[in-house]
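Appendix C: a fully annotated inverse folding record. The material below is reproduced so that readers can follow the format used throughout the book. The structure is listed first as tokens, followed by the designed sequence.
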């Protein structure tokens, strides 16, 4: 009998790339906001980054959206908008 690890070895696991993108974006947003942003609060759709944070934090983030986009670009993520 083969182990699950052997079956999955060499196969692309769906969702790992998205999970890594969310983790990187959450870390960058946490640094900018000085408030913990969890990866589950981050989502991507068609080049737009959506953050599920309180409105006070979102207002601050919108003011610094260009800086966040620059940091994410340096990390390898292409983001057109931040919402």
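Designed amino acids, in order:
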């Amino acid at each position: 009998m083969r182990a699950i690890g052997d079956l999955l070895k060499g196969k692309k696991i769906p969702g790992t790339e998205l999970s890594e993108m969310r983790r990187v974006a959450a870390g960058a947003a946490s640094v900018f906001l000085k408030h913990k942003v969890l990866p589950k609060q981050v989502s991507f759709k068609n080049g737009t980054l959506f953050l599920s944070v309180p409105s006070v934090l979102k207002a601050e983030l919108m003011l610094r959206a260009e800086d966040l986009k620059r940091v994410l670009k340096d990390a390898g993520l292409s983001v057109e908008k931040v919402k």
